[in-house]
Structures are given as structure tokens and as C-alpha cells.
Amino acid sequence: MLSNRINYLSESETLAMARKSRELKAKGHNVINLSLGEPDFNTPDYIKEAAKLAIDNNYTFYPPVAGYQDLREAICLKLKRDNGVDYTCDQVVVSTGAKQSIANVVLSLVNPGDEVILPAPYWVSYKEIVKVAEGKAVFIPGTIEHEFKVTPEQIKGAITSKTKLIIYSSPCNPTGAVYTKEELKAIAEVLVKYPSIYIIGDEIYEHINFIGKHESMAQFDFIKKQMIIVNGVSKAFAMTGWRIGYIAAPLEIAKACDKLQGQFTSGASSIAQRAALKAIATTPDTPELKTMQKAFRERRDLLLKLLGDIPGMKLNHPDGAFYIFPDISYYFGKSDGKTVIQNSNDLCMYFLNKAYVATVPGEAFGDPKCIRFSYATSTDNLVEAVKRLKLALDGLR
Ligand code: PMP
Ligand code: GLU
């Protein structure tokens, strides 16, 4: 008999859709995958070389639990160089992906019954990680009319004596929304009035931002004591499989995460850490990164244009990450003669089975009216996918 903890935990819906599309592919279907948020580029060669060198130089022993000292120093330099924030090495913990970084922090802070505010739409795993910690997720809805961003007033209205943490991402997964410096400051000004509340700012899409400089809430000194930055190498450097993420946090939280992962994993892979060091220590202006950023922007523009021609798709206008999150509730109640589309889950399954296009239902991110398209794929795939989606939607009455 499995524990209640695992019985109540849901499978990651992003990974589930990726699994379903792999299964259909294995049966010989030509599936276009717009589900998984994973760059389709190879890891740049200069990073791969660092990993090869690490093997030859015998970086094959247990690393320090919190990460190699020089990697943590490079992260501090990066935080200063790119974000203008000061952290010391002992405030940085390197983990097996930003996903583990988030889990470490939540498990270090949240007691059963504590409330965790999640501006919705939120990234799918936040809710489940909070569940594992036996916390209570409190959702505040963003609307497509405001690019799904929540206001300081909404946050204030959700705070109770039990609130322990708030988790947001900017650039946001699944909406691509990017909070401006002014918006972050206004939110920080509310939260500073509640010094026992911590904030996780998930900045994993930092370098995939189409409106200019990335803004971290940690830049406001007055909120830094409450703030935990989460970042990693998966997205910007096309390194999803290497599994390296990190936090920069108040010292007591960094120490707690170090203790926790000392019992759970003993630290992140030594070889992947050496590769991440190369990625993080190099300025983000490399031609490889520029090429990826340019491609994501072009694909965003293309997909917005293509989806814009489909009646009933209410589009948002993402400024970062690699997702579009349109409202597709226009199609609810319609049928192809066999299945009635009741919600975004049904529409996703219809797209997958009818058009062989994989997407992720908005339910996974706390907005059942929407659907997530990842455009981390070629322009040819995007054109073909939208052609198929249009045909499938034409079949609904
Ligand atoms: N945060 C967000 C918002 C993400 O989209 C992802 C997706 N992978 C992660 C964290 C986790 O990233 P990692 O691959 O570093 O675990
Ligand atoms: N973060 C990506 C996504 O949202 C990858 C999948 C995952 O880590 O859950 O699709």
C-alpha cells in the first residue's frame, strides 16, 4: 500500500503529455510536440567541451553537497553581473534542476497547514510540491486581459496569518508574461509589510525575454531578506538533461536546503556542475545564446500570427519564455459528432488524437479556459501544427 503522500500526488501533466506523444510516435504517428517546455537546440559545444574535460580531469567523486565552491562563486558573480544583486557563496545551493531547488525551499519552509500563495496561471509543479509539504495552495487568478499578471492588491487580499510563502515565475510559465521592474517593486512593497512571508522568484526563463533587461525582485534591498531566487541552466543554455538549478537565498534557507539535499541526493552531478560552471561564467551574450533567443522571438511572432487566424482563439501576448496561453473556451460545448469538448483537457486530447499535435491543458496550470502551446520547436513544425489544428477545429460544430 503506497503512502497517502504519493497517492494524492498528481503526475506532472507537462511530462504526461510528452509521454503520451512519445507513445503515439512509437506507434508510427507523426506527432508534433508543442507540449514540453524544452529548447529544441543542442547544448552549445563550448559547454559540452567543459563536461568532457571534467571527466578527463576526474571530476567523478562526490561534490560538496551545496555545489563546487568555484561554481557557487561563478553564480554570485553572475548574479552581480546580470542582476545587480549581491550574494555570498554560502547563500547559494546548487541542485538537480530548478525543480529540486524549488522542492528544497518548499520543504524547508512549509509546515502542514501553512498557506502558499500561487498567482495563477502557475507552473504545474508548484502546486504538487506544496502538496508534498502538506501546505495549502491559495490561488489568485490572473486574467488574459491583464496578460495574466496579478496585482499587489490581489496579493494583499490573499494574505492570512497562515501565509508562509508566495511562488511566481517571471518570465512566466505557462503565460510568457514578464513583470516589469515597477510591478515587481509594487508587489515587494506589499510583501515587506509581512516579514514572515518568503518569496520564491523563479527566474529560470531569465534569458528568454523579448522586452529587454531581466528584472529580479531581489534587486530591491528592502525585500532581500524574504526573497529566494531560483534559476538554472536548463532553458537559456539548452541544458535540460544536465539537471542543474540553483538558489540564492538568506543564509538560514540556504543552510536548510544544504541539509535536506545532503540526505536526499548528496548534491548534483559532478560533471554537469562543471558544464554549468562554463555556462554561467561566460557572459550571456554568446552567439549561441543570441541565436536561440532570436529563434524563440521569431517563432513567437509566427505562432501568434498563425493562431491569430483561427476564429475563437483569444490570444495573450507573451513577452518571454516560449509559451502562448490562449483562451479556447469558445470551443467548449462543440462536438465532432462523437466527442463533446467540455474543457481544455478534452480539447488537448482531441488535438492529440485527431491532429497528432501535443499541447498541455490549462487545467494543469490553474486556468481551465486556456491551453498551452510551447513554441520550442522549428518554424516548419509550427506551420504544420497550426494547419492541422485548424482542420481539427473545422470539424467541431
Ligand atoms: N520552473 C519553471 C517555471 C519551469 O518551467 C521549469 C521547467 N523545467 C522549471 C522550473 C524546472 O527546470 P529544471 O529543468 O531546472 O528542473
Ligand atoms: N518545465 C517544462 C514544462 O513546463 C518541462 C517539464 C517539466 O519540467 O515539468 O513543460
Residue-averaged pLDDT: 97
Strand content: 5-15%
Query: So, CATH architecture of the largest domain?
Result: 3-Layer(aba) Sandwich
**CATH fold assignment of the largest domain:** Aspartate Aminotransferase, domain 2
Major beta-sheet overview? 7 strands, mixed
Low-pLDDT segments: none
Class from secondary-structure proportions: alpha/beta
Q: Which cofactor or ligand species appear?
A: 4'-deoxy-4'-aminopyridoxal-5'-phosphate, glutamic acid
Overall 3D geometry? Answer: globular
* Number of alpha- plus pi-helical segments: 13
Order of helices and strands: HHEHHEHEHEHEHEEEHHHEHEEEH
Evaluate the radius of gyration: 21 Å
* Annotation, overall tally of beta strands: 12
Helix content: 40-55%
What would a concise description of this structure say?
With 397 residues, this protein is an alpha/beta fold. The chain is built from 13 helices and 12 strands.
How is the topology of this model organized?
Blueprint (H helix, E strand, L loop, with lengths): L3 H5 L4 H14 L5 E2 L11 H12 L12 H15 L8 E4 L1 H13 L5 E6 L3 H9 L3 E6 L10 H7 L4 E7 L11 H11 L6 E5 L24 E6 L12 E4 L2 H14 L5 H12 L5 H22 L14 E2 L19 H12 L1 E2 L1 E2 L9 E4 L4 H16 L3
Parallel strand pairs: 1-10, 3-4, 3-5, 5-6, 6-7
Antiparallel strand pairs: 2-8, 7-8, 9-12, 11-12
Helix pairs in contact: 3-10, 4-10, 5-6, 5-9, 7-8, 11-13, 12-13
